[in-house]
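ligand=MRU
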Amino acid sequence: MNIEKTIEWIKTDNLKGVSRMIDQTLLPYEYKKIDIKTTDEMYNAIKTMIVRGAPAIGIAGAHGVILAAIESINESDFKNSILKKANYINSSRPTAVNLSWAIKKQLEIVEKSNETKEKIIELLIKNAIKLENEDIEINKKIGEYGSAIIPKGATILTHCNAGALATVGYGTALGVVRSAFEKDSTIKVFADETRPRQQGARLTTYELIRDGINTTLITDGMGAYFMKKNMIDVVVTGADRIALNGDSANKIGTYMVAIAAKYHNIPFYIAAPKSTIDPSIKTGEEITIELRDKKEVTEINEKPICIDEVNVINPGFDVTCASLITGIITEYGIFKPQELYKIFE
Ligand code: MRU
């Protein structure tokens, strides 16, 4: 299968280039790719969710370090200038660990290299393209392992968008769906709308229906209703940061889905690459949850849906406790949350 990259580095000449990405804020109404040419533009692209989804923003961070190096070429303290700009990009969104993971991988190259500035830029480009290609390969492995837990003809509930759009291609949770669908075209997906940014409604249904997968859109409050009616067989979502004990941060609302799944004895899986596991944190208590603009809650398509005076709080993510998670599907196989630490052994 030839996979189109949702985000990729495009060389424009020897040492220059752009980060080309699908503008996800326009989907599904408009499919448009934009070129990010500066570190400021990259900060904004991540912050405003032009590019979103943990693995995709990781690659955006890797591209951001290339842009930082290109912008720093005439600086006497080249390495320090890159570091400052990279830290700025890293501050754009706090929850998904893939962002700092990929930036760190690029900064290691900068720190360790005694090469010329030009050579360092070349090495950064090479590494970013390697990370892009690896992301697709990893997702296919996640898909392959994950397809084993999907019963024949199952209906899979997913939350947010952990698909091709949230990665370089193929997806994590939707990679599992895609791989299962290749073996059994009778599987079905229920996609949560995912308020407030509607990634489920806008992106997941767009991706899956284009692939010919039977997809039903439901609002976030409907999951438990369909579970009770025995209409959901398994839940698979992505993650933004997983603690060593298996506690998993994902889009706000995932925790509620996991609680409902546990109550109804429905298996709940997280699908994520090793780069989403943060070995520096023991439990989900240590995960920083991004607080986003209140307008995401008070407006839909820039139209207010409530009076101005209302109090609003808008956390972008929640943490699903390890005890609610049946398994974590990675490129190294499926782990019980309590055995996740083995992935680092
Ligand atoms: O705020 P978003 O859209 O970046 O949140 C995305 C999610 O929560 C995804 O489920 C997660 O990043 C996994 S993507 C493979």
